[in-house]
Protein: Phenylacetic acid degradation operon negative regulatory protein PaaX
Amino acid sequence: MARPRRPEDLAAQLTETIAPRAKSLIITVYGDAVLPHGGSLWLGSLIELMGLFGMSERIVRTSVFRLCKDDWLTNTQIGRRSFYRVTESGKERFAAAERRIYAPLAREWDRGWDLLMVPPNALDAETRDALRRELTWQGFGAASATVYAHPNCDEAAMHRSLAELGVADRIVHMKASLDRAEGFGALRDLVRGCWDIDQLEHDYAAFLDHFRPVWAAVDAAEAPDPAACFVLRTLMIHDFRRILLRDPMLPPDLLPADWPGQESRMLTRNLYRRLAGPSEAFLMQAATTANGPLPDAQPAFHGRFGGLETIAAG
Structure:
């Protein structure tokens, strides 16, 4: 049997394969790693962390400037040092994503649907396109040009997006339930018309191909390198987030057989639990705030994926 590769080698390989963009990766680092520790970081620490992914200082500085313009981060200058903290708007967006990314495996569907109806000529073309992009990233599917559907949406995130786009008073939100009298055949056909199920399935399969070798490598390593663990944890959540936030989380009855989405979540949960300890130790040593070292992680961090306290179990 071939010996598993070292976590350090896989970290370098996956950084090249996934090739994340700096701005998006910084969002992942803040949401996954920095926010549980208070949400603030010295720019010098961020530059060092991003250097692990091959990002230059210039790219990091440009990216945080843009993230400030987009109201994700805000800058505080203390002497010659800059510190970047998550804004209130950024916290709300991170909270919406966190509810989906770190949810436990168990998930039930009550056969309810959220429908958003856009009256004809209610929006100009630019606003309509912005609404479509935002709803797509929340997992909504377009049942028609004026109707969006979701089987289990995050209502708080949906209402916040409508308010931010200034269209809350022009969109009709309705609840519907599935009538099973005719079975699932027609609904399956509708689902394939609303969502790109084939692309989601392909992306989840690629995710499994990327990170199953990581599980084997980390599981075989007696003491995996903490910096490599931080890189692998970040890349995994980054890649998983990119797919998951487009996934409407349809119930099994409406999905193809052997759907890889649940396997991807299970792998992410198990690998995150294994990587959390060494990656957190690295982060606490590497990162600095305006008040010194990072504060301890908030209790909610340890509840991710149903509980990180089970790391050592089994």
User: Anything to note?
Assistant: The chain has a mean pLDDT of 90. The chain is about 50% helix and 10% strand. The beta strands are 40-42, 73-78, 81-86, 112-117, 141-144, 147-150, 172-177, 288-289, 292-293. Residues 59 and 252 are 42 Å apart (CA to CA).
